[in-house]
Amino acid sequence: MSFGRPPTFSTFQPNPPDRGAFPLDHEGECKDQMMRYLSCLKLNSNSSTPCRVESKTYLDCRMNKGLMQKEDWKNLGLNNVGPESTGAKGTVEEREG
Amino acid sequence: MRPYLQFREMLASTRLGPTCRQSLGLPRSSINHGRPLQRSMSSRVEPDPVYLRRLQANRLRSQTSNNRTLLMYTTAVIFVAGGVTYAAVPLYRMFCSATGFAGTPITAIGKFAPDRLVPTEGANRIRVRFNSNISEALPWTFTPQQKYVDVLPGETSLAFYKAKNNSDKDIIGIATYNVTPDKIGPYFAKVECFCFEEQKLLAGEEVDMPLLFFIDKDILDDHSANGVTDVVLSYTFFRARRNKQGFLEPDASEEVVEASKGFAGYENAPKVEDR
């Protein structure tokens, strides 16, 4: 919709992220999971799909350490990822324990 | 004589004015309430002045109230029409963004709906390259930890940046971002990142900053974005903080800010907040 403006005129405005900002991981509590994800990227020629398990593990770590709001996996698009994906809310540890 | 009298009584009960009666070809006469009718044979009977006055007053009152109602309705119609005209463009936009009418992407609901965050199998991968910039006033180093990630549309992916505060003071920074080419802008969505909010790094501290993003799969239906295979996501960190009103302001003392504007040697009035 250009409303009389040239049709190439872009009215796009950046929006803040849906769930706000990650709190800073000052202690480096989830650094291991991050390094695992990055090395996975390196092994798979930077394709993100094979490393979805690692990204899920990382976010799981953040949720466990209180560095991120607990969220349904399906809201983060990681619903069908990994062995522990039951789609239930909560963390891996909670479901296993 | 009898039916004629009944007709006069009926006229009286319907309260027709004298003119109306004249137009009906009836004699002008007053209507008697409770009093015996004057059965004079003269065709002209003097009207009862009290009744006439009451009649006039009634009519005046009903006319006034009718006029006032009409005025109210007219004013209301004018105001409503003016308001609707004024709001037409935003209303139309809301309508279009809610219904997807005229090709507007549906933004009012569900860009982040769970069923949209599913990788589109078989689609071409889009390479997202990462770039970082930093304001000269900010003594940080800020680098992406991976050069690029190949993602499928609809797939949420993680990326990491690393920031280090090289100074001996705690410093607040705020990151802004942009995406190139700009036609991918509407489709590049972040679930969670480190932008838009203050990040305080302690003196000498190094932190990892994650970023969870996805490319909306609507991009596959946008012909103008067909050829986009490479996207550059660029972050820039500024030395800034938000004040009480939520606006960005430089994260530095007043003297530094004034000196940067060339007013170092001048005595400035204190800021409103500090008075």
UniProtKB/TrEMBL annotation, chain A:
Q: Does the keyword DNA repair apply?
A: no
Keywords attached to this entry: Cytoplasm, Disulfide bond
GO:BP terms for this protein? Answer: mitochondrial respiratory chain complex IV assembly
Q: What is its main location?
A: cytoplasm
Q: Which domain of life is it from?
A: Eukaryota
Record-linked InterPro entries: COX19
Task: Identify the stretch(es) annotated as Disordered.
Answer: 1-20, 77-97
- GO CC field: mitochondrial intermembrane space
**Where in or outside the cell is it found?**
Cytoplasm
Report if keyword Transport is assigned: no
Please list which residues make up the signal peptide: none
Family named by the database record: Belongs to the COX19 family.
**What does the record give as the function of this protein?**
Required for the assembly of mitochondrial cytochrome c oxidase.
PANTHER family with a match to the protein in the record: CYTOCHROME C OXIDASE ASSEMBLY PROTEIN COX19
Q: What is this protein called?
A: CHCH domain-containing protein
Organism of origin is: Sistotremastrum niveocremeum HHB9708
UniProtKB/TrEMBL annotation, chain B:
- Which GO terms of the molecular function aspect are on file? copper ion binding
Membrane topology is:
Single-pass membrane protein
List the residue ranges of the region (Disordered). Answer: 23-43
Q: Name one GO cellular component term.
A: mitochondrial inner membrane
Family matches, as InterPro entries: CtaG/Cox11_dom_sf, Cyt_c_oxidase_assmbl_CtaG
The membrane spanning regions, by residue number, are 70-89
Q: Where in the cell is it found?
A: Mitochondrion inner membrane
Q: What is this protein called?
A: Cytochrome oxidase assembly factor
